[in-house]
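To: structure subgroup
Subject: Chain for Friday's discussion

All,

I'm putting the inputs and outputs inline so they're searchable in the archive.
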Amino acid sequence: MDLYSLRIWKNRIGIGLSMLAMSFGLLALLWILWTLFSKGFAAFSWDFFTQDTPAPGSEGGGLRNAIVGSGLILFFTTLVSTPVGILAGIYLAEFGRVSRFAAATRFVTDIMLSAPSIVIGLFVYALMVETLGGFSGWAGSLALSLIAIPVVVRTTENMLKLVPTSLREAAFAVGAPHWQVSLKVTLRAVKAGVVTGVLLAIARVTGETAPLLFTALNNQFFSTNMSEPMGNLPVVIFQFAMSPYENWIELAWGGALLIALLVLGINIATRIIFRTKRNG
């Protein structure tokens, strides 16, 4: 066999192994999705969205309190992480590219990106829960914000670095100050990518359970008071899935599907934003 034929066979074997690995991955993913959708949709009903989590041994019930609690926690998480992450990303990309403080900020951001979420939950527990004397929705939002902020920071910085230097120079040439160039020229040029980073950060924290176990904990009853323990979907799914009650397990499947649909919707939204950006 000559060298050319040997290379062709090596290429075919490599492609075949790659296709085989991809097939195994797709089959596993389809199996998971089929199980999730088949069992999750069975739990969807009017009571699922209008009733609160049931007591042990009782029939029926829903996840209204957990859905509302998760919505409030994610809302305040987005409210905190979005401006902080975007402004930090602007500083790193526009004002502090070569400064030592920017280098230290990038280093800390990279550490937070790779830090286990349970460590962040323990940190907020020691910082806020023990200090204030109780679990709360605020503590849960803070823990999730610490996970989401690094994602927004790195996405914003990377997107701003893609802006051509000539665009900045043109803005400076007409007398615009640096802060206006950053906010009204470069940031506006990459707004689709920045919004995508925010959406990906929300998707990243939507299903986090460990931080909420140490911060927001859970609440069997409906509550919108962020200063008290608050029901949330990840913790409810975690608790109900391990329970011996059939209706609890069914509700856990429904909650898992609800989170999966939310994350799927966020990912579809990011693709639509990118498509709009390319077409524009």
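Points worth raising on Friday:
Residues 25 and 265 are 22 Å apart (CA to CA).
The mean pLDDT is 91.

D.
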